[in-house]
Write a sequence for this structure.
C-alpha cells in the first residue's frame, strides 16, 4: 500500500461519491431500523427496573425469574407442541392440494387452484375469529350439530382444535412451495420410472412426492417458526381456557394491569428472539444441501397429469368439503355475523338482519379512523418499505459497497423477530431513544415497525428479478458515462418495475393484515383494523369484530382486483 | 487522441493469474485484436481498460491520462474514462427505444436536446439504422441490435472503442457482412479500437495488429502477416490458421535453415526459430495449405519431399481433406483431386515449415 502517494497523485479517487453517500445512508437506515426494536429488548432483559427508569442497574435476575416461572414452561411446551402439530397438519393438507390440483385430472382444479390460496390474503386473526364464531363452544355450527346429536360434538379450545385452525391457515404456504416445485418438475424423471415398470400411483408415491422434499422441508420450517410466533390462534382459542403460549405470555404480561413486569417481558422476548434465530440458522444450514433434489434441468418438459380414474369425483368431493368447512363456512360465518344482531341456529339469520354493527363502526371516530389508518399504513407504508428495500437490494447485488454482506444479514434478520417482539421493541424504543418519541401515537411508528418486519419479504420478492438482469446492462451504462447512482435510477430500477409492483402488492396486503406488532404500538389516533378488532373481542363484542373483518376482506378483494387489472400483479402464486 | 498504453498489467484471482504481466501499446487510430482461446485473459484485459474489472497491478494510460495505476492504487471509475464498449450480449437497455438508448449517454453529458437529435441521427445513419429510432431492442434482429449497440458507443465520441466478441452472436453469413462493414467504419472514423475475439479469421481480416494471448500471457504481438507467417510458438502456429506438427531432431544449420531428422531416417529442412540447436529435439509446423502433391513435373528444387500413406479422406465439397501418416505422425492436407490408392507423394518448401525447440 502506498498511502502517501494515494493522497496526492489521485485526481479521481473521490472520498464522497454519490454512490457512497447513497450506499452508506441506506445501510445506516436499514441498520437503525433493525436495531431499534432489538437494542431495547436486549437491554431491558438485563435491567432490574423498567427501561425508562434512570435508577436501573444491570442484572441477570430477570432470566432466573423467567426460568423459574411455571407459566413460562407451560408456554414453552404448548408453543412447541402446537407448532409441531400445526406444521404436520399444514404439510399434509398443502402437499395433497399441490399434488391433486397441480398434477391430476381432478375436475374443477382451476377453481380449487384459486381458492386454495385465498387464506393467504386474510389475516390469521380474521380466520381465527371465523373459526371461533362457527366452531367455537357457542359457535353457530357447534350449536347446530349439538342440536342434532344432543351433546358437545367437539371442542375448539384444545391443542388439536387450535392445530387444525392454524394448520388450515398455514397450508397455503406449503401448497405454494410444492405447487411451484410440482409444476417445474422434470417429466423425464417420472417417465423413467414408468419405463422401468412403476404404475402411476407408485410413481406419485416413490418419485413425485419424494422430489418435493426440499419444498416440504422449507415450508415446514417456515410454518413451524411462523406458528411459534403466531399470536392470533393462541390468543383467540387458547387464553379463554387459560392455555399459555410464548406469544400470549408476552401479550398478557404486557397488558397485565398498570404495572407490567418489564424485566420479565424483556427476558422472555429475548429468549424467544434467540430461539427463533437459532431455528432460522439451522434452517439455512439444512437447506444448503438441497441441490440433491434439483428437479429442473435446462430443457423444459411439461409434466404429465396423473389419471385419478374412478377416484376423480371422490377427491373432488373431499377437497370441496375441506374448502367449504374451513374457508367458506368460517368466512361466510363472519359475514353472517356482521349483518345480524346475533347468530343462533334457533332463528333464521334474515330475521336477525341488521346494519347495526357497521353503523356502530361508522358512527365513532376511533373505529372509522382504524379503517382509514389501516389504508394509510398499507398504502404509504408499503411504498416507503418497497423504496427502501429496492435500494437495499441493488446495493447488495449490484454495488461494490464494502459492507454489502453485512447489510444482507441485517436486512434478512427481521425474519427472526416475531411480530409481538417487534411491537414491544419499538414501544420500548420510543422510551429509550428520544428521536422516536414524537412518533408515539402516530401511524408512523406502525409504518416503521411493519417496514422493519417486511424487509426480508420485500427483499425476497425483488432479489430474483434483479439476479435475472444481466450485469452487462449496468456495466454498459457505466462505460457510456453513468455513475453508479444514475445507473441504478435510470437502468436497473426501471427494469425492476414489475418486481417492485409485485413487492408493493405483497407488502400492502401484509401491512393491511398486520396486527401483532401493532398491539403494543397503537394509541388513540393510530388505531388500525387489527387492533380495534382485538379491543372489541376483549369486550366480547363479536358483531363489530365480524363487521371489521368483513371490511378488511372487502378492502383486500378490491385491492387485489385493482392490482391484477392495473398492474398485472398476482400477490401469490 | 487515443494512444493506449497497457503496462505490466496483472489480474490475479487468488493463485490464478488471469492476466499475467501484459504490456501492449496501441497507437492512435490503430485496430488491435486480442486473440486467444477462452480463459486466456483477453476479456479481462479489455474490461480492465474499460474500468469494469479492477486489475491487481500494472498501469493503464490513455494519452498520458492515468486510467489505472497499481503502484498508486489509483483507479478511474468506468464512467469517467469515456470508452465505448460493445458487449457480446449488446446490453441494449430493454426499457428504452433505440433513440433512448443513444440519448442516455448524451443526457449524462448534458448535451442540448437539438444537438442530441443531430448526433443520434448521425450515429444511426453511420450504422444504417436511422429508420429504427422508435423501436425497442426486442423488436430488432440480432444484427440490428449489434449495430445499435455500436451506434450507442459511437454517439458520444469515445476516446477508445472496445469490442468484446461483438460478432459472436450473429449467424455465419451475417458475421462476414458485419465484419467488412465494421472494418470499413473503423477505417473511416479512425478510432483507436481494441477488439476481443477467439475467431482467428476475424482477427486476421480486421486488425492492424494482433496480440495473441495464452494462459494470461501475451505470447505474440504483430501484424496479421507476421503472426501467420512467423508464429513464435507451436501454439500460435496452430491457433492462427492450422498447423501439422512433425517431431524430430535438429541437424546442421545454414542461413537459418536447419535440417531435421524425422523418425525412420527421413530428413527435411525447415526455418529455425531461435533456440533450435543441433542434436536437440524440435517440433516442425507445416500448414495444410502449404503441402502440395508431387505431380508429373517432379519435386521443385530445394523442397522437402515425403511419402505418406493415406489414412482417411473426407469430402468437403469443393475439395478433399486427407489424413496422412508421415513417419507415424498424423497430418492433414487438402487437395482438389480424389486420390486413389493408399500412398501419396507430397512436398513443401523449407520456407513453409518452421522448426520450434521442443
Amino acid at each position: 500500500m502506498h498511502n502517501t502517494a494515494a493522497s496526492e497523485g489521485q485526481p479521481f479517487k473521490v472520498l464522497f461519491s454519490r454512490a457512497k453517500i447513497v450506499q452508506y445512508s441506506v445501510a445506516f437506515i436499514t441498520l437503525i431500523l433493525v436495531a431499534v426494536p432489538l437494542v431495547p429488548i436486549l437491554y431491558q432483559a438485563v435491567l432490574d427496573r423498567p427501561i425508562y427508569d434512570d435508577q436501573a442497574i444491570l442484572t441477570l435476575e430477570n432470566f432466573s425469574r423467567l426460568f423459574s416461572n411455571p407459566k413460562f414452561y407451560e408456554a414453552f411446551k404448548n408453543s412447541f407442541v402446537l407448532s409441531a402439530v400445526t406444521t404436520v397438519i399444514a404439510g399434509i393438507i398443502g402437499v395433497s392440494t399441490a399434488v391433486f390440483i397441480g398434477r391430476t385430472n381432478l375436475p374443477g382444479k382451476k377453481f380449487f387452484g384459486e381458492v386454495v390460496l385465498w387464506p393467504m390474503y386474510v389475516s390469521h386473526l380474521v380466520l381465527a375469529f371465523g373459526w371461533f364464531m362457527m366452531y367455537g363452544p357457542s359457535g353457530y355450527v357447534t350449536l347446530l350439530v349439538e342440536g342434532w346429536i344432543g351433546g358437545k360434538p367437539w371442542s375448539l379450545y384444545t391443542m388439536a382444535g387450535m392445530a387444525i385452525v392454524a394448520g388450515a391457515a398455514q397450508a397455503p404456504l406449503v401448497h405454494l412451495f410444492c405447487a411451484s416445485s410440482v409444476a417445474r418438475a422434470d417429466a423425464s424423471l417420472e417417465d423413467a420410472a414408468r419405463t422401468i415398470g412403476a404404475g402411476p400411483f407408485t410413481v406419485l408415491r416413490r418419485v413425485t412426492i419424494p422430489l418435493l422434499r426440499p419444498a416440504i422441508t422449507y415450508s415446514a420450517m417456515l410454518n413451524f417458526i411462523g406458528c411459534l410466533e403466531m399470536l392470533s390462534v393462541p390468543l383467540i382459542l387458547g387464553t379463554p381456557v387459560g392455555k399459555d403460549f410464548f406469544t400470549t405470555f408476552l401479550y398478557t404480561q404486557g397488558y397485565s394491569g398498570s404495572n407490567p413486569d418489564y424485566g420479565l417481558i424483556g427476558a422472555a422476548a429475548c429468549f424467544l428472539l434467540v430461539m427463533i434465530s437459532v431455528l432460522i440458522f439451522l434452517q439455512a444450514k439444512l437447506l444448503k444441501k438441497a441441490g440433491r433434489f434439483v428437479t429442473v434441468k435446462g430443457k423444459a418438459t411439461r409434466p404429465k397429469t396423473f389419471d385419478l380414474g374412478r377416484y376423480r369425483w371422490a377427491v373432488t368431493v373431499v377437497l370441496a368439503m375441506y374448502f367449504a368447512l374451513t374457508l367458506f363456512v368460517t368466512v361466510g360465518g363472519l359475514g353472517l355475523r356482521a349483518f345480524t344482531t346475533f347468530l343462533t341456529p334457533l332463528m333464521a339469520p334474515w330475521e336477525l338482519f341488521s346494519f347495526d354493527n357497521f353503523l356502530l363502526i361508522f358512527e365513532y371516530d376511533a373505529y372509522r379512523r382504524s379503517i382509514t389508518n389501516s389504508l394509510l399504513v398499507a398504502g404509504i407504508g408499503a411504498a416507503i418499505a418497497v423504496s427502501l428495500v429496492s435500494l437495499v437490494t441493488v446495493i447488495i447485488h449490484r454495488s461494490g459497497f464494502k459492507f454489502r454482506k453485512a447489510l444482507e444479514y441485517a436486512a434478512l434478520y427481521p425474519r427472526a423477530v416475531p411480530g409481538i417482539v417487534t411491537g414491544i421493541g419499538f414501544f420500548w424504543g420510543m422510551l429509550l431513544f428520544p428521536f422516536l418519541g414524537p412518533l408515539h401515537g402516530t401511524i408512523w411508528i406502525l409504518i416503521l415497525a411493519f417496514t422493519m418486519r417486511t424487509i426480508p419479504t420485500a427483499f425476497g420478492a425483488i432479489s430474483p428479478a434483479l439476479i435475472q438482469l444481466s450485469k452487462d446492462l449496468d456495466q454498459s451504462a457505466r462505460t457510456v458515462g453513468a455513475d453508479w447512482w444514475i445507473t441504478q435510477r435510470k437502468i436497473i430500477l426501471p427494469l425492476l418495475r414489475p418486481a417492485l409492483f409485485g413487492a408493493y402488492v405483497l407488502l400492502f396486503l401484509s401491512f393491511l393484515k398486520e396486527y401483532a406488532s401493532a398491539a403494543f404500538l397503537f394509541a388513540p389516533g393510530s388505531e388500525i383494523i387489527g387492533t380495534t378488532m382485538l379491543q372489541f373481542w376483549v369486550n366480547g363484542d363479536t358483531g363489530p369484530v365480524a363487521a371489521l373483518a368483513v371490511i378488511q376482506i372487502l378492502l383486500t378483494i378490491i385491492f387485489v382486483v385493482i392490482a391484477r387489472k392495473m398492474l398485472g400483479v398476482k400477490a401469490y402464486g | 487522441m487515443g494512444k493506449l498504453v497497457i503496462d505490466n498489467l496483472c489480474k490475479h484471482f487468488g493463485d490464478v493469474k488471469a492476466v499475467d504481466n501484459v504490456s501492449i501499446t496501441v497507437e492512435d487510430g490503430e485496430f488491435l485484436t486480442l486473440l486467444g482461446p477462452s480463459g486466456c485473459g483477453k476479456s479481462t484485459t479489455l474490461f480492465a481498460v474499460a474500468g469494469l474489472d479492477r486489475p491487481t497491478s500494472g498501469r493503464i494510460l490513455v494519452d498520458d491520462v492515468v486510467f489505472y495505476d497499481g503502484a498508486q492504487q489509483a483507479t478511474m471509475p468506468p464512467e469517467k474514462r469515456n470508452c465505448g464498449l460493445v458487449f457480446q450480449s449488446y446490453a441494449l437497455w430493454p426499457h428504452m427505444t433505440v433513440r433512448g438508448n443513444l440519448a442516455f449517454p448524451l443526457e449524462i453529458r448534458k448535451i442540448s436536446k437539438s444537438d442530441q437529435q443531430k448526433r443520434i441521427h448521425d450515429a444511426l445513419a453511420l450504422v444504417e439504422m436511422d429508420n429504427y429510432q422508435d423501436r425497442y431492442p426486442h423488436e430488432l434482429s440480432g444484427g440490428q441490435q449489434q449495430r445499435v449497440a455500436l451506434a450507442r458507443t459511437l454517439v458520444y465520441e469515445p476516446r477508445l472503442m472496445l469490442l468484446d466478441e461483438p460478432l459472436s452472436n450473429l449467424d455465419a453469413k451475417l458475421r462476414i457482412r458485419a465484419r467488412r462493414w465494421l472494418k470499413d467504419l473503423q477505417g473511416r472514423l479512425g478510432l483507436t479500437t481494441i477488439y476481443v475475439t477467439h475467431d482467428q479469421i476475424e482477427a486476421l481480416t480486421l486488425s492492424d495488429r494482433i496480440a495473441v494471448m495464452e494462459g494470461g500471457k501475451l505470447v505474440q504481438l504483430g501484424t496479421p502477416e507476421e503472426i501467420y507467417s512467423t508464429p513464435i510458438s507451436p501454439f500460435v502456429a496452430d491457433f492462427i490458421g492450422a498447423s501439422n506438427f512433425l517431431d524430430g531432431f535438429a541437424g546442421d544449420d545454414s542461413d537459418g535453415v536447419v535440417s531435421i531428422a524425422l523418425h525412420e531416417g527421413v530428413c527435411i529442412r525447415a526455418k529455425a526459430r531461435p533456440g533450435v540447436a543441433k542434436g536437440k529435439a524440435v517440433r516442425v509446423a507445416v500448414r495444410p495449405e502449404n503441402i502440395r502433391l508431387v505431380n508429373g513435373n517432379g519435386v521443385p528444387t530445394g523442397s522437402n519431399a515425403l511419402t505418406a500413406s493415406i489414412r482417411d479422406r473426407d469430402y468437403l465439397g469443393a475439395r478433399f481433406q486427407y489424413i496422412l501418416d508421415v513417419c507415424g505422425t498424423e497430418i492433414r492436407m487438402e487437395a482438389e483431386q480424389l486420390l486413389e490408392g493408399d500412398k501419396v507423394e507430397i512436398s513443401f518448401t523449407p520456407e513453409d515449415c518452421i522448426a520450434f525447440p521442443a
Helices of chain B lie at 42-50, 98-108, 113-126, 142-154, 172-189, 200-206, 224-229, 234-239. Chain B touches chain A through 35 residues (CB under 8 Å).
